[in-house]
């Protein structure tokens, strides 16, 4: 069965510092992997996705993620965090014909 | 291209009532999925509709139901509301033919008193 684990419930970083949010997945085949961001009271916005090819994917807002099959991970990174990045981040695994499974989310706080 | 639209955005109901939420997908998207999001349980999959047929279903009681119309618009219904049904209900749509990227609407915030 497919599942996603985000080990960090809450992360605090200083503005301008680098960021890495962890995501581990369990899936029987090559997964489709996604990162979404959610601001308070809002829906989810797609940051980036991976389904084949280059294992380093670039997304919107300066985010990138690296797929590591050997570690079953798909960690999200940003070299320099902005105050507007404060939000909740969700990693998800899915496929064309299956429902998507989400991690529990990581809440990011940005210190001035 | 317009995004996913959900109506209403906010709703207050009392226990025992029923509620219907609506989702209009992005043009060309034929798959509509519904999720419930609560602080305690996170994002939980309710069901997916494609071509007016329920294709997948999550682990929710029969009080939660849905349907899809020929124009791909979808509704979900919750009957006999309970306090625990208070949540943000998110709709997500996708083309199905592609890799399965889902695009989410802004959600409907339901409060059950």
Structural class of chain B: mainly beta
Strand content of chain A: over 45%
Shape of chain A: globular
Distance N terminus to C terminus of chain A?
41 Å
Please write the string of helix (H) and strand (E) elements of chain B. Answer: EEEEEEEEEEE
Rounded radius of gyration of chain A (Å)? 13 Å
- Give me the count of strands of chain A: 12
Q: Please report the distance between the alpha carbons of the first and last residues of chain B.
A: 37 Å
Global geometry of chain B: globular
Q: How is the topology of this model organized?
A:
The complex is a heterodimer of chains A (112) and B (113).
Chain A: E1 3-5, E2 10-14, E3 19-21, E4 24-26, E5 32-38, E6 44-50, E7 56-58, E8 64-68, E9 73-78, E10 87-95, E11 98-102, E12 106-111
Chain B: E1 5-7, E2 10-13, E3 19-24, E4 31-38, E5 42-50, E6 53-57, E7 64-68, E8 74-78, E9 87-94, E10 103-104, E11 108-112
Parallel strand pairs in B: 2-11
Antiparallel strand pairs in B: 1-3, 3-8, 4-5, 4-9, 5-6, 7-8, 9-10, 9-11
How would you characterize the overall build of this protein?
The complex is a heterodimer of chains A (112) and B (113). Chain A has 112 residues and is an all-beta fold. Chain A has strands at 3-5, 10-14, 19-21, 24-26, 32-38, 44-50, 56-58, 64-68, 73-78, 87-95, 98-102, 106-111. In chain A, strands 2, 5, 6, 10, 11 and 12 form a six-stranded mixed beta sheet that branches. In chain A, strands 3-9-8-7 form a four-stranded antiparallel beta sheet, with no helix packed on it. A two-stranded antiparallel sheet of chain A has the order 1-4. The N and C termini of chain A lie far apart (41 Å). With 113 residues, chain B is mainly beta. In chain B, the strands form two sheets. In chain B, strands 2, 4, 5, 6, 9, 10 and 11 form a seven-stranded mixed beta sheet that branches. Chain B is globular, with a radius of gyration of 13 Å. The N and C termini of chain B lie far apart (37 Å). The interface between A and B is medium-sized, with 24 and 25 residues.
């Amino acid at each position: 069965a497919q599942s996603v684990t985000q080990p960090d419930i809450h992360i605090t970083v200083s503005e301008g510092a680098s960021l890495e949010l962890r995501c581990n997945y369990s899936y029987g085949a090559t997964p489709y992997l996604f990162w979404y961001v959610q601001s308070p009271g809002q829906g989810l916005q797609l940051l980036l996705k991976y389904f084949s090819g280059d294992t380093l994917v670039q997304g919107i807002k300066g985010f990138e993620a690296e797929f590591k099959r050997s570690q079953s991970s798909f960690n999200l990174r940003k070299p320099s965090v902005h105050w507007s990045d404060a939000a909740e981040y969700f990693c998800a695994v899915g496929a064309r014909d299956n429902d998507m499974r989400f991690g529990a989310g990581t809440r990011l706080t940005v210190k001035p | 291209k317009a995004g996913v639209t959900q109506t209403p955005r906010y709703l207050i109901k009392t226990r025992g009532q029923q509620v219907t939420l609506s989702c209009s997908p992005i043009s060309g998207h034929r798959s509509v999925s519904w999720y419930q999001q609560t602080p305690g349980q996170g994002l939980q999959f309710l069901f997916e509709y494609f071509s007016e047929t329920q294709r997948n279903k999550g682990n929710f009681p029969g009080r939660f139901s849905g349907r899809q119309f020929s124009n791909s618009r979808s509704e979900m219904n919750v009957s006999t509301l309970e306090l625990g049904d208070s949540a943000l209900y998110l709709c997500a749509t996708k083309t199905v033919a592609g890799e399965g990227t889902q695009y989410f609407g802004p959600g409907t915030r339901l409060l059950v008193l």
